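User: Study the shape:
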Amino acid sequence: MGNTLIHARCLNHGDREAVARCPECIQFYCRECISEFNGRVVCSSCLKKSTGIENKKRGSLAWLLIPFYLGIAIFVSTLFFYTIGQALIKIPSSFHDGTVWQKGKLLSD
């Protein structure tokens, strides 16, 4: 690795000098393209492979979640306001007239 590293260039950035060689893919990389993982210096693609992290795309039916959640939100808000409305209907009309707070009126009902 001694003499070959001196003249090597980064695989991703051809104008940069390589500082390390990935032990997995045997390619040369600059400081920006390598990371230390478990005491070893590896490139980002090999790091992704070794950690098992992959970019997973959502299924083709993922767009159905937005209308589904919107429907649930509309249903819950309708149920909430219906319950509030039913509670307001049960309030006696004297409360709305403002006569419920008059002295003695509360005891006579």
Observations:
- The mean pLDDT is 80.
- The longest helix spans residues 65-89.
